[in-house]
Specification:
single chain; 14% strand
């Protein structure tokens, strides 16, 4: 059984048929195993709906239906937003003013660390300038990440290494 973090990119590409990644994400979603579980956050769902809000009434409707389905699905864990989580994400955001991470990015990074996740549904295995590092957390060039598919990234580092790296967050981020 795998537990996969769901990034906003994945949800947008899955829903928005005009997205350049739509076909690949759709194909990947059909390869997920029945015992795979997904984890995301309220913040990712907010970002999804914000992204879809400019794409017309039909996409807004599909977005809200998808969010409701994710919230009700036993295969998906949606971490609710609360003040403590907000402040933890804000603290990371404040520590990395030199980056262009969104608050949602910081909340996602925090949740992945807290939950010990090592796989994320996203599109890039490397740091994209000015964005969240995908696969998140171990972004040193020497850190080894294996692309399981174009959209699932698995770390070949231990959870202890990820935790240690995050405890020293200033030295782990380029």
């Amino acid at each position: 059984m795998r537990q996969l973090f769901v990034d906003t990119f994945y949800l947008v590409a899955l829903l928005y048929r005009r997205d350049a990644w739509h076909e690949r994400v759709l194909a990947l979603s059909q390869t997920l195993m029945p015992d795979d579980t997904l984890l995301t956050t309220d913040a990712v769902l907010v970002e999804l709906l914000a992204t879809l809000s400019a794409k017309g009434p039909q996409m807004r409707r599909e977005g809200t239906e998808t969010v409701r389905m994710l919230l009700e699905s036993p295969e998906v864990t949606v971490i609710p937003q609360n003040r403590a989580l907000f402040l933890e994400g804000l603290a990371l955001y404040e520590r990395r003013l030199d980056k262009q991470y969104s608050l949602t990015d910081c909340l996602s990074m925090h949740m992945m660390r807290r939950e010990g996740l090592t796989e994320i549904l996203t599109k890039r295995p490397s740091l994209h300038p000015g964005r969240l590092p995908d696969p998140v957390f171990v972004t040193r060039p020497s850190a080894s990440a294996v692309v399981v598919s174009p959209l699932v990234i698995r770390y070949s580092v231990s959870r202890q290494q990820v935790s240690k790296c995050l405890q020293e967050i200033g030295s782990c981020w380029p």
